[in-house]
Specification:
The structure is a single chain. The chain has six helices and 15 strands. By secondary structure, the chain is of the alpha+beta class. It has one domain: Jelly Rolls. A hairpin with a 2-residue loop joins strand 4 and strand 5. Helix 3 runs antiparallel to helix 4. The longest helix has 16 residues.
């Protein structure tokens, strides 16, 4: 497939340090990483997954073309979001979405799906890495996007292991201690875990505190895993046509926090 590029790659204007790169760790080593709550890029950890050679746009269209999934709206290849509207979304079949990607028109949609609820067959092509903890709560999400697509700066409550299947993505990350410097949306909004700051092009005049941050940066290539610790802020841009998944999981008190967050999303009508 030849993806249409309608938005150039935009490096961050903030000076960033590179995320540490390692090979696949042992379970003990990874537990230590979790305790330190520091992002790490695990190179080549998923090369043996069948998804690495099966998951193409044509494969999705041929095998799952009639599945109805959520697609987020974007403008100029940036996902639209706001305190009142949340993230505007449509329902679209996989076949319709792949056809949009393969057309000459700009594909201003970002496909997002909970795999267990929409295409559980995909779980046969991936596997939770042996070093990752088995937790009482977990979720696997699928992400598909055209080249140039970007998602807003936000954090997640659970731990996050992000896997790149096809293409490359840039991820900018900020630690939880930078939260007030990143100007979150109000706690009563539909997206209290989202920032008003564009980390690639921060408006220092409107958001002066962001100057006191120093993000971390990772370019996640096909076959890589990126560990994003809970509550770490991250903003992602597809450098090429991209298929990704992520494993979210939660244990202990954080498991209860995740359950509370899901109730909040349901009450506020947040479906993405």
């Amino acid at each position: 497939m030849s993806a249409v590029q309608t938005a150039p790659y935009r490096p961050s204007e903030l000076a960033a340090q590179d995320v540490e790169v390692i090979g696949p760790p042992s379970a003990t080593e990874f537990r230590a990483r979790i305790r330190r709550a520091q992002p790490v890029l695990i190179r080549g950890a998923t090369e043996s997954w069948p998804a690495r050679y099966r998951w193409t746009p044509d494969h999705f269209k041929r095998n799952y073309g009639d599945r109805l999934l959520r697609v987020a709206h974007s403008r100029d290849h940036n996902v639209i979001y706001g305190a009142r509207e949340g993230i505007p979304c449509d329902d679209m079949t996989v076949g319709e979405y792949v056809s949009l990607l393969q057309s000459s028109a700009p594909a201003e949609r970002y496909l997002v799906a909970i795999i267990e609820e929409t295409i559980p067959e995909l779980l046969q092509d991936i596997s939770l890495p042996s070093f990752c903890p088995r937790a009482p709560w977990s979720m696997t999400r699928l992400w598909m996007s055209p080249q140039g697509m970007g998602s807003p700066l936000h954090f997640d409550v659970p731990q996050n292991l992000f896997a790149q299947i096809t293409g490359r993505k840039q991820v900018l990350l900020f630690p939880p201690r930078d939260a007030l410097k990143l100007y979150p949306l109000p706690p009563y909004s539909r997206l209290p875990h989202y920032s008003r700051v564009d980390a690639e092009r921060p408006d220092i005049g409107r958001f002066p505190r962001v100057k006191r941050t120093r993000p971390m940066r990772a370019v996640v290539e096909a076959g890589d895993l990126l560990f994003i610790p809970r509550l770490w802020w991250h903003q992602i841009r597809s450098l090429e046509f991209s298929i990704s998944i992520n494993f979210w999981w939660a244990e202990g008190l954080m498991y209860q926090a995740v359950r509370a967050a899901k109730v909040f999303q349901r009450l506020r009508g947040i479906r993405l």
